[in-house]
Design goal:
Order of helices and strands: HH
Structural class: mainly alpha
Distance between the termini: 17 Å
Shape: rod-shaped
Strand content: under 5%
Largest sheet: none
Number of strands: 0
Number of helices: 2
Length: about 140
């Protein structure tokens, strides 16, 4: 009788140890995934801020150029409007390119986060499968 109680205690302690070890592995995977996501978010933020600063710089340049040509507008209105139209088209193209770049950066970042989450999920599933296999062996009839 004491032998069965001792065997039950030993199995219980071993099962608790296996659960604890697995939970630590899973926690490590979650932390790695979270850290990877945070790094990717920081990188994304930096790239988007750089793009915003570039857009502001281009906007200032556009406005300064338009203002510098304003005094000559009454003398040559057709030239002024033509330059404005061309400058507007160029600016719209630059804004489009910046937005396209931002979309590509955002997509790449989302892909990286998705890949990291998928890998973490797979490792977590493997950890629980290993636990199930070990527990099956532990409680298999002798």
């Amino acid at each position: 009788m004491a032998d069965k109680g001792s065997q039950f205690t030993r199995h219980t302690l071993e099962a608790l140890s296996l659960w604890s070890e697995t939970n630590m592995q899973v926690l490590r995977q979650w932390l790695d995934c979270s850290a990877s996501t945070a790094r990717e978010g920081g990188s994304l933020s930096t790239e988007l801020q750089t793009s915003v600063l570039e857009a502001v710089k281009q906007g200032q340049s556009y406005m300064l150029q338009r203002l510098s040509e304003l005094p000559d507008a009454p003398k040559h209105p057709t030239d002024y409007y033509q330059k404005n139209l061309m400058a507007s088209v160029d600016t719209a193209e630059q804004v489009y390119k910046l937005q396209l770049g931002n979309a590509q950066v955002l997509l790449r970042s989302a892909e990286q986060v998705g890949i990291g989450a998928q890998q973490a999920s797979q490792r977590i599933q493997e950890s629980y499968k290993e636990l199930a296999d070990k527990l099956s062996l532990l409680y298999a009839p002798a």
